[in-house]
């Protein structure tokens, strides 16, 4: 279990130290510790585990400074006494390259805390070395059952390889980019392709001359021309009329495919011949250099409705595209978004290829280059609105930043909601309750579980905040911890919807409750969670991934980067689980079997995972934001973490929504090898 995936807990002597996320250098993979401080991790173990890592000086400090630092690893036992496990000296300046020390030591089962400490040796001077870095410390359990090995699909008998028709409408692109786009198809390692080119009234005669030259050079290239521009939808439909393949792939006239793109597509079709749609990762390229990498999740229908994320490379079953009527001119600019939404109303046989197969090239006339096609954003918004209407969803579609949209589902005023929470301490309840009163949805009540000795005080805090006694159901919390109390409160709830709070939290966005209920009221969605912030403004909960079966709290501890990853609060994301707070229908809660308190602070995660086994989805709604008034519940309870992993190892050998090119030891979307 990598410690970098867990929240640092500091001793009273520590400064505000946190794992750095700078990707430009070694600090992006390390914990930097100043001399005279230590950082402690409370642990709960049920058997001996091993701690390993490496500690070293920063390269510039080794070269430019003097002195010696002493790094130590210590543990605290049940008696509260600290015992040193390992110590090593780090010499600056004249004692060789700064290789540092590898650390590997055992933590007994009765360890209650692990501490990393750094101190100076000798008197300090102005150029003394004062800091060191720990490289990716890790706790491992040598005796843990790794779970069943991943199952591999039995290869299907290989029939005739599919013919893939690449459709490219052409209208006055930069000539050299058109040449490179065509060359990228002709360079494919997979041979069974055809390229269907339609010149849509290009004004530059060199464009059509280049198309004719390529068509004459390769019989797999088919060419048609319209003397006047008909628009991209009409040109794409005409290209599809030239096609004879079972699948169509869309390639813009100024972009390129990787040379193995169609081979990967064909391999996936061979393995899953019933697929109707395949999409890959992509990057944006400027002057031959990748400036942005788009690593995508697996099939995420709720994300698609706020962010046409599948984009390039997109491959679709030709017969199904014909069946839905091809591309529609009223959605020019986002005609592919409209087509994909209509197609996925007919099928969920969608696969993601988690590798970059498409280079989307940025230049002044391209969407990737900025705001060159503002009409495309309007067309995509209209396509999403039409899709929601066809599928019976009562919602408004608003604009976010270019390419992103805010889908707001209407929630009837009569829809009842119980705010279900456990509170071991009345502190913070009144502050949270005042924010609940400020949100606009009228039909809500509070179901509160607290220990019997503080229950009256907790109710008094709620009433002091202006919540009438008639809207409060008070439940004496049974022994067993916060999850047991929350389950007891949920059992007493009677509303249509439950908002489960592991600890009190105050709303920060005015419509947070209706945003969450708007999603959880949908039959196919079992749980919707908000972004939950800590009192200092850092992210405490923003969805959970389980790429190795161990819960990875996304962007935990981050502050400034959340809008970068969450689309400025407009896009909704499918995730494997949410924690801290979730909204769910009461009938769904009971059908799934409610909370399992034996999972303690991971009970909401287990609830979400059980929901996904029924075919329902979980969503994160980033523009619903609350701030906790209680303690951080991100847990270092290793026995419970490993029990969760062992329980779900057979279904979570990977996470469908967490791209495998992201690191699995931390949730900040850092790239593997980065």
Overall description:
With 674 residues, the protein is α+β, with helices and mostly antiparallel strands. Helix content is 24%, strand content 29%. The chain is built from 17 helices and 32 strands. The strands form 7 sheets. Strands 10, 11, 12, 13, 14, 15, 16, 17 and 18 form a 9-stranded mixed beta sheet that branches. Strand 26 and strand 27 form a beta hairpin. The longest helix has 17 residues, at 374-390. It is globular and about 85 Å long. The two termini are 19 Å apart. The model is unreliable at 1-29, 148-157 and 368-372 (pLDDT under 50).
What overall geometry do the principal axes of the alpha carbons give? globular
Q: Can you count the helices? A: 17
Distance between the termini: 19 Å
Q: What fraction of residues sit in β-strands?
A: 25-35%
The percent of residues in helical segments reads 10-25%
Main sheet properties: 9 strands, mixed
Which class of secondary structure composition applies to the elements?
alpha+beta
Low-confidence stretches: 1-29, 148-157, 368-372
Report the radius of gyration as a whole number of Å: 28 Å
Mean pLDDT across all residues, rounded?
87
How many beta-strand runs?
32
């Amino acid at each position: 279990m990598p410690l970098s995936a867990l929240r640092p807990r500091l001793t009273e002597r520590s400064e505000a130290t946190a794992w750095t996320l700078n990707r430009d250098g070694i600090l992006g993979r390390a914990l930097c510790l100043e001399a005279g401080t230590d950082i402690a991790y409370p642990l709960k173990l049920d058997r001996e585990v091993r701690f390993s890592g490496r500690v070293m000086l920063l390269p510039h400090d080794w070269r430019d400074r003097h002195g010696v630092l002493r790094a130590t690893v210590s543990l605290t036992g049940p008696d509260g006494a600290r015992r040193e496990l390992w110590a090593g000296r780090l010499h600056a300046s004249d004692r060789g390259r700064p290789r540092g020390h590898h650390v590997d030591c055992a933590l007994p089962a009765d360890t209650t805390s692990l501490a990393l400490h750094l101190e100076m040796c000798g008197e300090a001077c102005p150029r003394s070395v004062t800091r060191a870095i720990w490289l990716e410390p890790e706790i491992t359990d040598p005796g843990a059952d790794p779970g069943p090995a991943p199952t591999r699909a039995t290869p299907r008998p290989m029939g005739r390889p599919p013919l893939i028709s690449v459709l490219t409408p052409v209208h006055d692109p930069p000539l050299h980019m058109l040449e490179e786009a065509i060359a990228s198809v002709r360079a494919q390692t997979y041979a069974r392709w055809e390229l269907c080119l339609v010149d849509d009234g290009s004004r530059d005669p060199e464009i059509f001359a280049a198309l004719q030259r390529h068509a004459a050079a390769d019989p797999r290239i088919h060419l048609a021309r319209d003397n006047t521009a008909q628009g991209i939808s009409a040109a794409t439909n005409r290209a599809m009329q030239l096609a004879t393949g079972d699948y169509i792939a869309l390639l813009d006239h100024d972009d390129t495919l990787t040379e193995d793109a169609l081979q990967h597509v064909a391999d996936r079709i061979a393995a899953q011949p019933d697929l109707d749609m395949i999409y890959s990762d992509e990057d944006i390229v400027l002057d031959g250099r990748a400036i942005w990498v788009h690593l995508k999740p697996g099939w995420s229908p709720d994300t698609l409705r706020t962010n046409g994320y599948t984009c390039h490379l997109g491959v679709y079953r030709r017969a199904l595209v014909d069946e839905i009527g091809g591309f529609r001119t009223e959605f020019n600019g986002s005609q592919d978004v409209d087509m994909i939404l209509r197609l996925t109303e007919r099928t969920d046989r969608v696969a993601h290829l988690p590798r970059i197969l498409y280079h989307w090239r940025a230049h002044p006339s391209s969407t990737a280059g900025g705001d060159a096609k503002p009409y495309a954003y309007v067309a995509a918004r209209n396509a999403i609105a039409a899709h929601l209407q066809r599928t019976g969803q009562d919602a408004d579609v608003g604009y976010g930043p270019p390419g992103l949209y805010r889908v707001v589902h209407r929630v009837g005023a009569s829809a009842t909601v119980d705010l279900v929470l456990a509170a071991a301490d009345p502190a913070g309840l009144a502050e949270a309750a005042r924010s609940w009163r400020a949100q606009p949805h009228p039909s809500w009540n509070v179901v509160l579980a607290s220990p019997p000795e503080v229950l009256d005080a907790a109710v008094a805090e709620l009433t002091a905040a202006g919540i009438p006694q008639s809207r409060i159901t008070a439940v004496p919390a049974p022994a067993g911890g916060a999850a047991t109390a929350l389950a007891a409160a949920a059992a007493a709830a009677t509303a249509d919807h439950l908002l489960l709070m592991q600890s009190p939290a105050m709303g920060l966005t005015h419509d947070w409750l209706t945003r969450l209920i708007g999603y959880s009221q949908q039959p196919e969605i079992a749980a919707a969670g908000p972004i939950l912030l800590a009192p200092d403004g850092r992210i405490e909960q923003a969805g959970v991934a389980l790429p190795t079966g161990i819960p990875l709290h996304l962007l935990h501890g981050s502050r400034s980067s959340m809008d970068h990853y969450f689309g400025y609060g407009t896009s909704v994301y499918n995730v494997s689980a949410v924690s801290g707070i979730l909204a769910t229908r009461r009938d769904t809660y009971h059908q799934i079997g409610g909370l399992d308190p034996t999972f303690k602070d991971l009970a909401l995660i287990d609830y979400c995972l059980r929901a996904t086994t029924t075919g329902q989805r979980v969503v994160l709604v980033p523009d619903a934001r609350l701030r906790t008034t209680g303690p951080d519940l991100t847990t270092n309870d290793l026995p419970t973490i490993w029990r969760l992993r062992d329980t779900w190892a057979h279904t979570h050998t990977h996470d469908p929504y967490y791209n495998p090119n992201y690191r699995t030891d931390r949730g900040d979307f850092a790239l593997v090898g980065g």
